[in-house]
Hints:
By secondary structure, the chain is an alpha+beta fold. It is built from 16 helices and twelve strands. The strands form three sheets. It has a five-stranded antiparallel sheet. Strands 7-6-12-11-10 form a five-stranded antiparallel sheet. The protein is globular, with a radius of gyration of 23 Å. The mean pLDDT is about 85.
Amino acid sequence: MNEAEEVSLLIGDIYDASLDAALWTNAFDSISRFVGDCGATLISQDAITRKIDLHFMLGHDQQYVDMYSERYFRINPLFPPVMFLDTEQPQTVADVIPVQEFCRTRFAREWLAPQGICDSVFSILEKSSVGCTVFMTMRRRLVDDEMRRRFSMILPHVRRALLIGNVIDHHRVEAAALADTLDTLVSGMFIVSGTGRIIHANASGYAMVAEARVLRAPDGRLTATDPAADQALLDIFTAAGNGDTALGRRGVAVPLKARDDERYVAHVLPLTSGARRKAGISYGAVAAIFVRKAALDLPSPPIVIAQEFQLTPAELRVLFSIIEMDGVSEVAEVLGITEATVRTHLHRLFEKTGAGRQTDLVKLVAGYCAAP
Length: 372
């Protein structure tokens, strides 16, 4: 099997998983093999409380999965700096924190090193004011250009499939009965031909085109009221007719603007590959479109705090470590730096924020966390 065929099958598995969350395990296992000798992890983490939702952690012994879930996620030095990264941009450890400093951390010494893991390539898939979802691959060799290239190839498809899965709330959806099983969605849902002709819509979808604020249906064809968005949708419908891979990086989230300037977003799921072909053939369709109101794009508390007080990444790491740990010595051990370095960062934090004690820093962070 050549690479093009392998990629096509893999992307098909990824989009099939958007309709049936139970298929994600096999999809991520295939991703691990394709990217190259690595484990695959999907994790959502709160920016302040550091609580996590560990969706998948494949390629690790169960004891290390348990150890991560129970305690090591709290001392992972990649958080909160990862919150500053853009979505859908491949990153390695060196892009976030100096490698030598990272290797000295307790997380690296106690959790990564015993597994022989030495590098990772990862990306934010979704970011909000309260946290982010990260797709990560870890390996026992250094990340090379080939691994980064392969990761980049499948990254936009993983992101699109997960966003669609979030819209349908991860219920199992039979591809052949797609329309019937999605009719109760609060989000607007449309099944369309390659020209955008509406073959089926749910109640929310019909309400949207009836209002004609963000979408219309002249002559039965789905169009956006905003001309630029309308052209983008038509291009995506045309591409969807040529299979999953034809979409490439396009259409992960098509922004739509209503007549009253409210923001919406459309996610397009091709119906011309994988198990979804059953639905495409049944309805004579090339794609399903999910439209929902866009969430407010509010910056997360770590980003707000860092920008407000002009904190460096190292100062931010110390700030969010000191609010969870007992004192300077524990922070130094966890971050792999000297106590003198921690005190230096604390002194700068006091100067920049106006805080006089560590408890004042805790109150400062809590205040930003509680702000509406």
